[in-house]
Amino acid sequence: MRILHVAHQQLRKYGLTRVSWAQKLYYGLVKNDYLVQTFSDRDVAAFEAPLGIRELGRRAANKRLLQTVEAFAPELVIVGHCDIISNATLQAIRDLLPGVVIAGANNDPLFVPENAAKIAHRCEVVDAMFVSTGEVELQRFSGKRARLLHMPNPVDPAIESCDSSQRTDLPHDLIFCSKSEDYTERGTTVAYLREHLGDDISFYTPGSYGVPGVWGRDYDLALADSRMGLNLNRQEGLHWYSSARMAQMGGNGLLVFTHRSGGFDSLFPPESLVYFDSPEELLQQVQAFHADDDRRRHWAANTRAFFHREINSTLYARYIVEASLQRTFSHDYAWCGD
After folding, report:
1. 268 with 319, same domain?
2. Do 170 and 128 fall into the same domain?
């Protein structure tokens, strides 16, 4: 199968990239033996624009995408976070290839109004829309062309390659990486932990409290050196919504603490993720697992094993293809049927 994957590929980061779900999707598509052509809208716009000014390259990027479609003739087009590409261009792709299936994918939170508007806009033209929030939250986008589906944040064995659950010689007891302060009050939880954890628990906070942020390989190393990680989302309570950090930490064998309101206990097995309802309960859980490292390692190992077995990039990519084309599923995907 020929698949055109349109998403920000971070070409101009030159290695200093954020961990990218688009990259994991590409890896997964290739592992499933699909022929994949990538198109990085932001990078193409910058390459084509006068003086490299990306905003001046929008029209050219849309034109180059249509040129790519003509040359590659994809059977499936997957459009991720590619705001430069217009719905009119996606309709033009249909005109060029009447049998093509177009799927949208969005990995950002619904509580950001701008992102919700982007999803609604794409739903007007794509055949399927995959969102990283659970399907029960997606009905607000119903009534348009797109079928609405959940997609998880996957791990990839080449990216989440470390395993803190097998180590005891780790310099950081607890890690939380973030610098975003929009649409969130999670900083109060972090501040509460910093005040009450005490000196015997090393709490590493890249991106806040004067600690420099970490990207690329530095981020990988920070996770590899940590026992436990906080999955504090900017807002809690949306079904199966989480930042990609949950997969990044869990896939590397960290013990992951996440808010109970996300409903992940219906997806993950027992003794894997650690749930909490309040900063006080979170503090108690962190202290309890810090005092029992064998238990920490056992729960973290269960989480890592589940991620790598059931929510990996290969299954993730295969699911998106099969669901887009409305094929019978070749696997009992853990996130389907809830």
Report:
1. no
2. no
DSSP state of 97: -
Question: Quick check: is 111 in a domain?
Answer: yes
Give CA–CA dist 29/203, Å, rounded: 37
Distance from C-alpha of 246 to C-alpha of 258, rounded to nearest angstrom: 8
In this structure, the answer to whether residues 127 and 94 fall within a common structural domain is: yes
Distance of CA 311 to the CA centre of its chain: 12
- 333: in domain: no
Dig out the tokens for 96 from the structure.
Answer: 């060029």
Band of pLDDT at residue 38, cut at 50, 70 and 90: very high
DSSP state of 292: -
CA pair distance 44, 24, nearest whole angstrom: 20
Which residue type sits at 229? G
Residue that has been written with the tokens 């004067």 in this structure: 210
Segment 298-325 mean pLDDT: 98
The pair of three-digit structure tokens given for residue 28, joined into one six-digit string: 């997964």
Cα torsion through 181, 182, 186, 192, rounded to 10: 40
Q: Indicate whether 227 and 261 sit together in one domain.
A: yes
Is residue 207 predicted with pLDDT exceeding 90? no
- For residue 126, give both structure tokens: 């794509």
Domain ranges, residue 88 = 2-154+312-324
- Tokens 């809830």 appear where? 338
